[in-house]
Design goal:
The chain is mainly alpha-helical and 147 residues long. It is built from 7 helices and 3 strands, in the order ααβββααααα. The termini are far apart.
């Protein structure tokens, strides 16, 4: 038997041994994703958060994260693989907080909630401000978070 046929016979008969004896690269890169060889012989992607993108994520960022995870899976995976998920959630959170504050101020002016009312009747003022804040939060959730 010539050498080519012997090697083919060896691969067919003892294929797993031949593959296991091959030297595997420690790190490979495919499609702009770096993979590291684990102890079990499998390659796992390196999906850590890029440097400088570790932001704190608040209430609205977490709501958006949950919405993306359950309803927009492809968008979630795209942001995660691009390394922009944390930054995106932080921006959504900041945008929502700014929008809530703007809406509260506008709605307070429209409803006639003033400092004079606060001085005259604190409980009524507090109830009106809480109502305005809850309404503003619901608007922001419908317009920004759950879209």
């Amino acid at each position: 038997m010539d050498k080519g046929r012997q090697e083919t016979f060896f691969i067919r008969t003892y294929g797993w041994r031949y593959i296991m004896s091959k030297e595997l690269a420690e790190i490979i890169e495919e499609n702009k994703i770096v993979y590291h060889l684990a102890e079990d012989g499998c390659y796992y992607p390196d999906l850590g958060i890029p440097e400088g993108t570790h932001y704190s994520i608040g209430k609205y960022g977490l709501m958006r994260w949950e919405y993306l995870l359950t309803n927009c899976r492809s968008e979630y995976i795209r942001l995660l693989l691009d390394g922009k998920l944390n930054e995106y959630l932080h921006e959504v959170d900041e945008e929502c907080h700014a929008r809530v504050e703007l809406l509260v101020e506008q709605m307070k002016a429209g409803a006639g909630i003033t400092e004079e009312l606060k001085a005259a009747n604190q409980m009524k003022w507090l109830g009106l401000v809480n109502n305005v804040r809850i309404t503003a939060e619901e608007i922001v959730q419908r317009e920004i978070v759950y879209v």
